[in-house]
Amino acid sequence: MENLLRSKKLRVTPFRLEVLNVFAKYDNAIDISTIESELGSFDRITLYRTMKAYLKAGVIHEIILNGASKK
Question: Residue 65: what pLDDT?
Fold first, then answer.
């Protein structure tokens, strides 16, 4: 996981690694509420900034299914 972040020129932090571990648990698309429930105690702003950084760097991508929430 650390190598993935470094290859995308992102800082490696414990929180970013924790978020990546949540994604690694699932084989399919997940929504933000799933990520939030998996993390337990966290700063919501930090999570949204992390997600934005992952999207911009190409670590993850988002999809919208027929007007449903983003995944």
Answer: 76
